[in-house]
Amino acid sequence: MAKTRIDFMGKKKYFFALSGALVAISIAALLIRGLTFGIDFQGGTTMTLSGAEGVTTEDVRAALEEAGVPDTSNATIQPTDDGGFIVRTAESDTARAQEAFSAVSEMLGLPPQDANVTTIGPGWGDNVTEASLVALAVSIVAILIYISLRFEYKMSLTAVLALLHDTTIVLGVYAISGREVTPNTIAAVLTILGYSLYDTIVVFHRIRENATGLTKMSFMEMTNESINQVLMRWVNTGLIQVIPVFALFFFGGETLRDFAFAMAMGLLAAAYSTIGLASPLYAVWKEREPKFQALKRKYAAHAAK
Amino acid sequence: MKLKPTNAWALIALALLLAVSVWSFWPVEEKITQGLDIKGGLSVTLTASPLGAGELTEETMSRVETILIERVNGFGVSEASVQRQGQRSFLVQLPGVQNAQDALRLLGEPGKLEFVDLTSVTDTATLDLIAQQLEAEYSGEETTLPQLDPEGYEPFMTGEVVTDARVTTDEYGNLAVSISMSGEGADVWGDVTTRLSATRGQVLIALDGRAKSAPAVQTPILDGDTLITGSFTVDEAKGLAAILQSGAMPAEVAIDESRLVGPTLGKESLDQGLLAGLVGLALVAAFMVAYYRGLGLVSIVALVAYALLMLGSLGILSRMNAFALTLPGIAGLILSIGVAVDTSILIFERLKEEIEAGRTHRSAAKSAVRHAIGTSIDADIVTLVSAIALYALAIGPVRGFAFTLILGIAIDLVAALLFTGPIVRMLAEGTMSKAPAFWGVKGGDTRG
Question: Which domain holds residue B238?
C-alpha cells in the first residue's frame, strides 16, 4: 500500500472558505427561515391509532368532535400504511387529551393497547432547550479544561471551534430542509459533540506525537504529514460510525429515524471539520510561536517548490 | 503462538467476565428491564417552578420529590418510579397504567391536605371507607384506595396552615412527626384540640381526598406545635411528614408532557430497533473483514465480547433498578458499535504503519497496542465528559442515549485491554508472519 501524500494544508484556504461559507449559509438560513419546531415545542397531542379496519378519516374526525375536542377542523388526521391513523390536535392539557382519547377509541371500537398518546404542554420545548443549553455549556467548559490540561489550550479552543462549526451546520441543514426539530434532534446534536471530538483528538494525538523534537520540517508540513499518517484511520472510523447510523435511519422505525438523520449530518460535518478546520487552524496558530516561525522560515524554500 | 502470562491472565479475566455477563442477561426478556416506551404504560414529565418570586432550592426539590413519590404510591401501580431529571424536572413512570386521566389529574394537582374532626363525619359510608383505608395504610398494603365521598366530610382546616413538618423523636426516643403551624392555623387548631382532648377524639388527616392518618388528641395544643406519636417505622414517619408538608407544596408543579404507550406499538418499535442493530452489526462486520482480513475477524470477536459485556452490564444494572431500556437507549447501543470498532481500527492501522516502517511484527504489535489504546483513552475521556454532562443535566430522550454511550465507552476500553490488545500481541508472535496476506499485514521483517 503506497503511502498517501495529499497536500491538505496547502488547500487550507479553500477549506476555510468552505467552512466559512457553510457556517454563513447556515446562520443565514437560521435567521431567515428559522427552524420548524415539532409538536414537542408547540404543545399539542398526537394519537397513534391502529387496528382501525374499516374506519375512515371522516369517522375519526366525527369521533373527535363527539369527544368534545376543540377546534377539530384544525386537527390533522393522517392515515398510516398499516390501516391506522396519526391524529394531531392542539390539546395541551394532558388529562383532557387522555379523556378525549379514551372516548375516541371507544367510539371507534379500537383496542387501546395498540395506541400511543403523547401530550406536550406548552412549556416542555422550552424546558428541553434550556436544559440542553446548560448541558452544552457545561460540557464545552469541561472539554476545554480537559484538553487544555492534557494537551494545550490552543488545541482545546480549535477543537471546540470545530464542534460549534459542526453543530451550526447541522442546525443549518434543518433550517434549509424545513425538517421538524424534535427533542430527538436536540439529543442527536448534543451527541455529535462527543463524536466530533473523538475524531479531532485522534488527529491531535498524532500531531502532538510528531511535534516533539520537530526540526526536519515546518509545523504546517508536519501537520500535513500527521493527517496523511492517520488518513486511513480517519476514513475507516468515519465509515464505521456512519454505517450504524444509516442502519438506524432505514430500519429503526419512525422515532429513531429522526435521530439518525441529525446524527448522519453531524458525523459528516465532524469528519470534515477535523481535517478541514481544526487541524489547519491549530497549525496556523502554532506557526505564530517563535520556535515554529523559525522552522517555517527555514523550510520556506522547500515549501515553495 | 506462545502464551505469555500477562496475555493469558487478560484472556482468563475476560472469559470470567463474559461468563458472568451471559449469566446476568440471559434470558433477555426477564433480566433486562424494558422502559415504558417499549413495554407500555404512562410516562409523565413534571416541571417545578418557584412559587411567587422565590427560588427553587435543593431542599424544595427534594420535598417536591417526596410528595410526588407519596402520590405515585397512592396509585398502587407496581414498579412505579419518580426520577429527577435535569435541574427542575421529574420523570414519573407508571407501567401498564390504563386509566391515564385519573393519574394525570392527581399528579398535576397542587395537593389538598385536609384536617377533619372525625366525630363531625356523619355519613356512615364515608366512615366505613375511612376505617378501611386507614387499616390498609397501616398494614402497608399496596392497594389503590377509593376516594372519600367529598360530600361525606367537612374539613375544619386545610394544609395551608402547616409551615413545617418533620420526622423527630418524642421524649421516650420513639419516632414521631412534628408539625408547626401559622398563627391563624394555631388558633383554629387550639379550639379543636381543646374540645377533642376531653374525649380523646380523633383528627382525620386526608390527602387529596384519601384518609392517611387519624391520631387521637391527647392534650389541647394552643401554639400549633404538634407532635404526632405512635409506633411508626422510619418510612411511615417520613411518609406522614411528606403528606403534612404537601399541604404546603413548596413549588408550582406543572405537567409538561405525558406519553401513553400501548404495549403492542412499543413491541413493534423494539423489533425495528433490533433489526437496525443487526443490520448495522452485519455491515460493520462485513466491512472489517473485507478491509482488514484476518484482523477483521479479530475485531468481530472483540465486537461480540463487547456486546456480551454490554448486555451483561445492562442486566446487572436492571437488577439494581438502575436501568431500563428505552428506544433512545437502543439507538445509543447501536451507535456504540462504532465506538467499539474504532479502538480496533486504531490498533490495526497503527500496527500496519509500524510494520511498514520496518519494525518486526512483535515490536510493532507491542508499540501499536500501547499507542492506540493511549489515543483511544484520550478520545474516550473527552467523549465521556460530554456524555456525562448530558446525562446529568439534560432532560428528555437524550438521557437514555447518554447513559448507553457512557457505558459503551467504558466497556470498549475493557474489551480493548483484555481482548484486542493481548490477541494482536499474541498473533504477532509468529502466526501473522506465516500468512501475512491473510492477516492483512505486509510480510515485512519476519524474524519475529
Answer: 41-257
B294 & B184 share domain: no
Give B88 to chain A, closest Cα distance, Å: 9
Please check the confidence at residue B21 and state whether its pLDDT lies above 60.
yes
Phi, psi of A76 (to 5 degrees): -100, 135
Q: If you average pLDDT over every residue of chain B, what do you get?
A: 83
Cβ–Cβ contacts within 10 Å for residue A149, how many?
A: 10
Task: Give residue A29's identity as a one-letter amino acid code.
Answer: A
Q: Concatenated DSSP letters for chain A?
A: -PPP---TGGGHHHHHHHHHHHHHHHHHHHHHT--EE-HHHH-EEEEEE---TT--HHHHHHHHHHTT-TTGGG-EEEE-TTS-EEEEE----HHHHHHHHHHHHHHHT--GGG-EEEEE-TTHHHHHHHHHHHHHHHHHHHHHHHHHHHS-HHHHHHHHHHHHHHHHHHHHHHHHH-PEE-HHHHHHHHHHHHHHHHHHHHHHHHHHHHHTT--SS-HHHHHHHHHHHTHHHHHHHHHHHHHHHHHHHHHSHHHHHHHHHHHHHHHHHHHHHIIIIIHHHHHHHHTTSHHHHHHHHHTHHHHH-
pLDDT at position B137: 65
Residue to test with chain A: of B38, B381, B386, B388, most A Cβ within 10 A: B386
Whole-number Å distance between alpha carbons of B69 and B93: 11
Mean local confidence (pLDDT), B211-235 = 81
Contact B398 A260 (CB under 8 A): no
CB contact under 8 A, A142 and B389: yes
Give the Cα separation of B143 and B74 in Å (integer).
8
Could you tell me if B123 and B192 lie in one domain?
Answer: yes
CB pairs under 8 A between A and B: 260
Confidence of residue B448 (pLDDT cuts 50, 70, 90): very low
Choose which CATH entry (1.10.540.10, 3.30.70.3220, 3.10.129.10, 3.40.50.2300) describes domain A44-120: 3.30.70.3220
Q: Select from B90, B91, B260 the residue whose CB has the most chain A CBs within 10 Å, as the one to mutate to test that interface.
A: B260
B213 has pLDDT over 60: yes
Minimal Cα–Cα distance from A210 to chain B, Å?
13
A229: chain B residues, CB-CB within 8 Å: 353
Give tens-digit pLDDT for A258-303.
Answer: 888 999 999 999 999 999 999 999 999 999 999 888 888 888 765 5
Residue of B nearest to A208 (CA): B375
Structure confidence at residue B447 as a pLDDT band (50, 70, 90): very low
Q: Which of B104, B276, B345 sits opposite A247 (nearest CB)?
A: B276
CA distance A159 to chain B (A): 11
Count the neighbouring beta carbons within 10 Å of the beta carbon of residue A15: 19
Least confident stretch, A60-69, B99-108, B412-421: B99-108
Q: For B397, which of A187, A194, A195 is closest by C-beta distance?
A: A187
Please answer yes or no on whether A113 and B261 come within 8 Å at the CB atom: no
| B335·A112 Cβ contact <8 A | no
Q: What is the ipTM of this complex?
A: 0.83
| Domain A9-38+124-304 = CATH 1.10.10.10 | no
Report whether pLDDT(A2) > 50: no
Residue B374 in grid coordinates = 493511549
Instruction: Report the range of poorest mean pLDDT among A149-153, B45-49, B53-57.
Output: B53-57
